[in-house]
Automatic annotation (TrEMBL):
This is Glyoxylase-like metal-dependent hydrolase (Beta-lactamase superfamily II). Residues 18-206 form the Metallo-beta-lactamase domain. The lineage of its organism: Bacteria, Bacillati, Bacillota, Clostridia, Eubacteriales. InterPro entries: MBL_Glyoxalase_II, Metallo-B-lactamas, RibonucZ/Hydroxyglut_hydro. It comes from the Bacteria. Keywords: Hydrolase, Metal-binding, Zinc. Its cofactor is Zn(2+). It holds the Pfam family Lactamase_B.
């Protein structure tokens, strides 16, 4: 785990799994853009302490475990205010809010696996807001929903665009069997809108710092389209969800050995099915009380 400078007072923490941007103030205080996984917590805290850096605010791009799991800890232990969009804040506010993400899981299972995500936002960004001031530093807000309902990208005072999961690097795309997107049609629209974003540097959480992102945008869109087409190719006759789930996991040679893994895969497969329905390539039918997907 190490810290690398991006531009001016904008830096990243490279955890190995992802990069976490932060903006450094003159006082040694830092404004973090996301805050990492629980498993990364000790390394992040120790690294910042060794560099004399004090977490003083967290601006969250979205409410997924790898971006927000340490927020409640930083809020409690360091008094760090948490800033996020009103949509993502509603998700993280309580176990019932989390159930809007993990909608097929019981509340008890959600709290067993994802209790570290629950946190109450100190400041909520409206979905039409374009700027936010944090400790005297101005950040530009770019709405990029799709990967999650209230996902944002943020531009630091150094004109560095922190994209969260709005895009992934080519290495990540090439080495991933499946990737999550909450609403694929909206995600693709947000990705296309990034063609208009001008910044001096671009930080992609998974993973890296780039001088330009135009070469990343279409491959990210193509990845989602290819994932949807893979689902479509596995459907020959009317098929129920469980059989289709089994075909997808066998196709990718993914072993589902526990409940958490089952639900994770389910959350990746269902949006692809919904995208095929939204684009008219798949339809639903009910026969004797059972739902089937039909080309």
């Amino acid at each position: 785990m190490l810290i690398r400078k991006v531009k001016g007072d904008t830096y990243i923490i490279d955890t190995g799994f992802q990069v976490i941007p932060f903006f450094k103030l003159d006082t040694g205080k830092i404004i973090m853009v996301d805050c990492g996984l629980l498993d990364e917590r000790e390394g992040i805290v120790n690294l910042l302490a060794s560099e004399g850096l004090k977490p003083s605010a967290i601006l969250a791009t979205h409410a997924h475990t790898d971006h927000i799991e340490n927020a409640a800890f930083f809020q409690k232990e360091f008094g760090v205010p948490i800033i996020m969009t009103e949509v993502e804040a509603a998700v993280l506010d309580s176990p019932l809010g989390l159930k809007t993400y993990f909608y097929t899981m019981s509340v008890s299972d959600i709290m067993k696996h994802y209790n570290n995500m629950v946190v109450k936002a100190d400041t909520k960004i409206g979905m039409r807001d374009e700027n936010v001031d944090i400790l005297g530093a101005g950040f530009r807000i770019i709405m990029t929903p799709g990967h999650s309902p209230g996902h944002i990208s943020v531009v630091t005072p150094d004109n560095v665009a922190c994209l969260g999961d709005a895009l992934a690097s080519l290495d990540v795309l090439n080495n991933s069997k499946m990737m999550f997107s909450h609403t694929i049609s909206r995600d693709i629209e947000s990705k296309r809108n990034l063609f208009e974003l001008e910044a001096d540097k671009y930080v992609v959480s998974h993973k890296g710092v780039f001088d330009e992102i135009r070469s990343l945008i279409q491959p990210n869109i193509d990845y989602l389209e290819a994932s949807a087409n893979m689902i479509l190719d596995l459907i020959e006759v009317p098929i129920g969800f469980e059989e289709l789930y089994e075909r997808v996991t066998k196709h990718h040679v993914i072993r589902v050995r526990d409940l958490k893994r089952y639900y994770m895969m389910e959350r990746m497969i269902r949006p692809l099915i919904e995208y095929l329905i939204d684009t008219g390539r798949l339809r639903c039918s009910v026969d004797e009380g059972r739902l089937y997907y039909i080309k």
